[in-house]
Amino acid sequence: MPETTDLLPLHERLRAALCADGPLSAAWPHWRVQAPQARMAEAVAAVLEQGGTLLAQLPTGSGKTLAYLLPLLLWGGRAVVATSTHVLQHQLATRDLPRLAQALARPVRVAVLKGRGRYACLQRLGDAVQRGPRPGEWERHARLRELLAWAGASAEGDLDEWPGAAVDASLRPVLVSTSENCLRQACPRWADCHVERARRRAAEADVVVINHHVWLSELRARRQGRSAGVPRHPVLVFDEAHALHELARHWHTQRAEAWAVSRFWSDLAELAQGPARGSAPWAGLALQGDRAWRSLSRALQAAAPREGLQAWPLSVEGAAGGGAARELGLALQQAHRALQAAQGSDARLGALSERAVAIAQVLQGLLAPAGGETGPGAWLDWQDAQHWTLVLPGPEADEAQARELATGASAGVRAVVHTSATLGDEPGLRWHRDALGLHSLTGLRALHVAPEGPLVGAAWHVPPDLPEPADPAHVESLARQVARWAQRLGGQALVLCTTRRAAERIAQALAAELPPHWRVLRAVGEGGRAAWEALRQDDPRAPTVVVGSGAFWRGVDVPGNGLRLVVVDKLPFAPPDDPWVQRRLARAREAGADAFEAVQLADAAMALRQAAGRLIRSPEDRGLFVVGDVRLRTRTYALRLSAALADWRWLENEEEVADWLDALALTRASTTRHRGA
Length: 677
Prior knowledge:
InterPro entries: ATP-dep_Helicase_C, DEAD/DEAH_box_helicase_dom, DinG/Rad3-like, Helic_SF1/SF2_ATP-bd_DinG/Rad3, P-loop_NTPase. Belongs to the helicase family. DinG subfamily. GO terms for molecular function: ATP binding; DNA helicase activity; hydrolase activity, acting on acid anhydrides, in phosphorus-containing anhydrides; nucleic acid binding. One of its GO terms (biological process) is DNA repair. The protein is about 45% helix and about 15% strand. It is built from 25 helices and 18 strands. The chain is globular and about 75 Å long. The two termini are about 40 Å apart.
């Protein structure tokens, strides 16, 4: 994006671009600027020219993306744009930025930079293929050969672009590198490294699109005098900025993820075929450690009371997991001693030794005595036997550290934009501002644009006859109603669940309720993008219901007919025994606030608005949002949460819902015929 030669000030160029006979109207005949969009674009232009930090909340469907991209491209400088999901990252880089640059006739170099774990590692893949198949693993080895051939021919090596079936999680340890096991300049494939190529593209680009986790990795790397490849551009934009709250948790935590522990033992086993093969019984050490890790996984599966983050008394002598953790700690200790003794014989030994120490430190949290006299105890973030994380909590990030995450102040960033539909419910956007320590920031501006009136095409409903979520019959009852609504509409429905387990159960129940030609797709892991593409295709011959959880509550754009029904399985309250929530509740009580209202109700209201926002992405969109939780009719807090959807039309009963769905189906059929004409 070359420096502009325009003589007009940026705000005048912006107004010219937004006017009725401007370049956007010429490029997109049916496009019309929305008043909230214009207000945000002007606020972004001001912060680009003057510096500072802007918090901007617009109603869902107001065009926030264009509101920051347009002044950014007209300004002509270089910027980093951070999103909350890979799906939104892809959408910005392949659709939004190119379309806008073409409309403005302004060439712009765009690069996508993902985390290291999204790129195929040619060296590790090549080593795995060269070692040959183990007994009974011919099919796995054949898949590795296919992946190596593809990665060698691919310009980017981005695993999201792999054309084959979803990559099995068991292949990841040999498919990608980590910052710990990467050989860097010592790697024979350094010149062809897909990670380094992506970083070089980012260094040359005008706009670099990353996700929030890459930004956190960059800040951590800079503290160690390194970089994760994010350029030091003067402008930083956080889309879906509310997601930064969760990232702020990770500043002072040490984490041992299941996949990382498993990968450590597989990397150790590889030493048996490298330069250090004769210096220690690597295969035996790896086998011992892998068995201990699997034993710990089984113990955790038996002990974890629920899904999600939880404090778990594994430090108590004799508790489930304590013995398995000690076995794993002993195996790590033996591996570390062997690695230290063999230093110098293989470039990988030093990094492996550091990884053994890091995992062992987290395990100490499990082995600390009850009461935590010699250790803080660990947290467990449990999803399933393959997806869990042990977290060793440290002190909470102070305001200065939270501000660094939110502004990149030490990185030379001069203009920062945070935007989302859910930053707060009052003009100062305190919910977001205070969570990230921004209240004392010099040059802070807040733009809170409230909905101008009721959303014409948006309605919502709470089924009055559902069992409460704690009732075992809730899932089947909700699935029956969703199946009925989806069939009445003709498909294109999304069910958002508060846990992975609930998503699995509802997906199974829906598959049993719907006709055989219907598609019930789980939007999880590698299958996420395929699920969203199925909605966007809007094929009447293959009606679709997508079931998702986690990140799929936010940041996904399925405009038009692609999505007409969104159902939330229950109110998105964080579990009260979540240790992070407990910290926030304690802070609220210390400040004299109603802790439930200030933390859990506020968070749930924002999450509901995010979920509803998946449905209405433009003024022309129509749809029905359903909350499958009767507590929204019966509890005293129902009014507070309902206010989050005050601009949506309320449907009281099933008859009104049926009429609304029939009208949506009629509109969909009409536009589908028009599109196919």
